[in-house]
Amino acid sequence: MQRHAGLILKSDTPKGRGVFTTAPITAGTVIETCPVLLISEKEVQAHTKHTELNHYTYNWPVLSAYNHHGSCQAIVFGLGSMFNHSRRKQNVTWERDLSQKTITYRALRRIEIGEELCISYGDRLTFIDAEELAGRESDDESENNPINNIQLGL
Ligand SMILES: C[S@@+](CC[C@H](N)C(=O)[O-])C[C@H]1O[C@@H](n2cnc3c(N)ncnc32)[C@H](O)[C@@H]1O
C-alpha cells in the first residue's frame, strides 16, 4: 500500500470533501493504492443501492466459475472514495488490480500545489456537476454584463 506525501482533504468545496495537494506531483506518480471491499449484485440491490454508499462504489468485473462475465460493486478504502469528478480538469487516472483487489491512482499530468485531484466518473452522473454549473453561471453573467454586450456596428 502506498500514498503520496502532501495530500490533504478539504471539507468545504462546492463538491463536498475533496483531495488537494500541498506539493507538486509529477506525471505518472502513484498517488495511492487502495484496497477494495466487494459487494455482490444481490447485496447491492437489497442494501447499498438504497443508501449513501451508492454514490461511492465502483463497478468491479467478476468472472464466474462458468466463465460468465458479470460485475459487482467495490467500496474503495482510503482516499480513493474521496476523489471528486471533473470532466475538464481530470488529472488522475485509476487502474483496478482484480486479483489483489486494489485500485491504483496515478497523476495523469503534473499537478501543481493547491490543485484538486480529480478523476472522471464518466458521462452518467447522479448529481449536478458543480463545475458545469459554475461554468453556466459565469456564461450567464457575461451575457448580462453590458461590457460584454457591446453591439458591433456592422
Ligand atoms: C465518491 S464521492 C466523492 C467525495 C465526496 N465529495 C464527499 O464529500 O464524500 C462522490 C460524491 O461527491 C460529489 N461530487 C463529486 N464530484 C462532483 C462534481 N463535479 N460536482 C458536484 N458534486 C460532486 C457528489 O455528491 C458525488 O455523489
UniProtKB/TrEMBL annotation:
Residues 134-154 are annotated as: Disordered. Gene3D superfamilies: SET domain (2.170.270.10). GO terms for molecular function: histone H3K37 methyltransferase activity. SUPFAM superfamilies: SET domain. It holds the Pfam family SET. Residues 5-122 form the SET domain. Residues 144-154 have a biased composition (Polar residues). InterPro entries: SET7_MeTrfase, SET_dom, SET_dom_sf. This is SET domain-containing protein.
